[in-house]
Amino acid sequence: MADSPLRQALDCSDNAIALTNRDRQVVYVNQGFTRLFGFTSDEARGRYLSDMLQGPHTHQGLTEAIRSGLRLQGHYHGDALIYSRDGQPRWVSMVVNKADEAQGGPGGSITVLTDITLTKMHEVLQKRVLESMVSETSLPELMTRVCKEVENIAPEVTASILAVDTNGRVHPLAAPGLPDHICAALDGVQIGPNVGSCGTAAYLGKPVVTTSIATDPRWDDYRALFESTGLKACWSSPIKNHQGLVVGTFAFYFKEPREPNALHKSLVQVCLHLCALAIERDASRQRIHQLAFFDGLTGLPNRAMFRNSAERALSSMARDHQTGALLFVDLDRFKQVNDTQGHAAGDTLLRVVAQRLGECVRAQDCIGRLSGDEFVLLLSNCTTEQAVQTAQRVLGSIAMPVDIQGQINLPSASVGISIYPYDGTDIDTLVRHADQAMYQAKSDHRHSLQLFSQEMNRRAQERAAMERALHHALERGELTLHYQPQITSDPVLALHGMEALARWSHPEWGPVSPAQFIPLAEEAGLIPALTHWLVNEVCQQINTWRAAGIAVPHVAVNLSGRSFHQKGFAQNVSNTLRQHGLAAHDLLLEITESVMMDAREVTQENIELLSQQGFRLSLDDFGTGYSSLSYLHRLPITELKLDKSFVQDLEHSETARALTISVLSIAKSLGMTVVAEGVETSQQCRWLKEHGCEVMQGYLLGRPMPAHMLHAWSLEASAVCCS
Ligand SMILES: Nc1nc2c(ncn2[C@@H]2O[C@H](COP(=O)(O)O[C@H]3[C@@H](O)[C@H](n4cnc5c(=O)[nH]c(N)nc54)O[C@@H]3COP(=O)(O)O)[C@@H](O)[C@H]2O)c(=O)[nH]1
């Protein structure tokens, strides 16, 4: 074939072509073969292809498969990993055909090899990496696999992959060929313009080729660290996510000063894409994990996460026969911070408290935020005394002043403690019992701690039973209204109005005090239904009285602060009134100081609308709260109800008398009526009258009564002596 046109044509081909004789010895290779495998025609002639091209990762059965293909079918076709003269791996597509002498062939075979290294590289890397992703392999493991695959394909390379965090610090993900102490030294290094090849590539967002580590000034700070590795050159490329942000670096180190070749470039192209995919996927997984298991506001484990770790801690305590404690921490008057300073202030307070709680626990303890202002701590391996000491530390730490938007807050908390295993062996029971103890701490004396007891459990169960019964009380007609008269004292005795007071008579338990069931209704979310029923009942009753000729100027209704959190509440009240043909002045709405101070937008909207529609507000329990007088003239308040605690102390307390005179004077100057509550004696009545109190309410004048008794009461009322 010497210099024949056929030979010239074969030499031009990109494929490697080899002819063998009947003894399987090479008789001819084209130039494509030399280009691909490095063997010249002379070097190849007389040798076996299998001897020349097999390498460490060539399939063991390849030669036998080719021989059997030729024997049985006269040809063989398949992909194989073989090696060039200098040990470079090459994936080839191999077609081997018999070349019988009878048909003019050399007697052995014609082998055509097409280089498919790039395609195969893609396929192998992509397949392995994607498979690993599906099987939930960890990111470092996955990245180690990428490095190892790359080092298999290009044995002259030592690969490394670093992650770059959002603060621009690098963290080694995989570098199987680098010593551990180098990875440890690189962890946390800040990227920059002269931070080796990787730190610089990450900083610049483009590849950095260091052909000689010995002379590259960007390596000045890292040369000594790498000295023992014998690595002389480095080529690092940034890994970018889909938004183009650098999330890592992929580097090739070489043992001699050099530049990357075409194979290296192709490898990097494939790997950058896969690494970006894997790193982004891992980041999403971490984000999902964070969202699913951590509280977004405080960063503390959420209920689910706390539960998981607490259950593990309980198992370990059970195994080691240890005792532990669950602390249930609830902030005191947190709602007040939200209502008066706004939700941003409330959020800041919660973050500060979470941080303080974190500082009170040891590494082996679990902490979590259950909801709102409720936090839990599970203390492992601790005695009751140690739990009490930790709870005291928690109370002390929470009580430190907090500056929120320039306003100093003095937070406090109540803590309930349940002890493992005595108060419960599972997490739900321990949390429930610690919650009951916390409830007790709060009702006894805020900013205190309380250990759980079985008595608390009994009371909590009663409370829960009452809450369940209350859900049915409305529909079963167990709730009714009583009315208490309010009388003017000056100039003559006359009916000022009636106050509607809810009554619940349970079929088994008998009467339940509103002081007990109204807070329960608030906790159980029953206030909207209760208030709707209340306003409707009162409207009906006013019409019934008026139709019977009983002149009731207005009825005062007690409104829970929760009603004002309901969008459209003011409109509902107004609509109900209209449906009964009544006007705004037929009702007087009693609110407490907490409503007046509530900064919520919805509360303000409801108050504003009620005011626009002509409703009058009466401020209940005046003097018992933390009255801010500035609100009095800003809101449509026409009446102050002097709390009965003042009235009942009038006869023996100078302070009560002084405060009552102040309230009467404030009301007078603001043009408001004062209704004195809880007037029980004629002395109280007389004193109040003498000091200018115009309206009184109390057992002396009339107890709360069913509506039908008003007529009978009015006949007797003239007998009331207040003079
Ligand atoms: N949101 C709503 N709150 C309501 C409703 N009905 C009642 N309540 C609130 O429950 C608390 C307890 O009420 P009650 O047991 O009815 O006590 C009231 C009167 O019976 C009592 N009172 C009246 N006169 C005297 C007296 O001379 N001595 C004395 N010891 N007690 C007396 O005072 C209560 C009236 O309080 P106030 O509302 O502050 O005027 C109570 O806070 C009710 O507000 C309801 O429908 N919704």
TrEMBL record:
Limits of the EAL domain: 463-718
Family annotation (PROSITE patterns): EAL (PS50883), GGDEF (PS50887), PAS (PS50112)
A GO molecular function held by the record: cyclic-guanylate-specific phosphodiesterase activity
One GO term (biological process): cellular response to nitric oxide
Gene3D superfamilies membership: 3.30.450.40, 3.30.70.270, EAL domain, PAS domain
Domain PAS: 2-73
Catalytic reaction(s) noted: 3',3'-c-di-GMP + H2O = 5'-phosphoguanylyl(3'->5')guanosine + H(+)
Domain GGDEF: residue ranges: 322-454
SUPFAM superfamilies found in the cross-reference section: EAL domain-like, GAF domain-like, Nucleotide cyclase, PYP-like sensor domain (PAS domain)
InterPro entries with a match to the protein in the record: Biofilm_reg_signaling (IPR052155), Diguanyl_cyclase/Pdiesterase (IPR012226), EAL_dom (IPR001633), EAL_sf (IPR035919), GAF (IPR003018), GAF-like_dom_sf (IPR029016), GGDEF_dom (IPR000160), Nucleotide_cyclase (IPR029787)
Xref: NCBIfam families: GGDEF, sensory_box
Protein name: Diguanylate cyclase
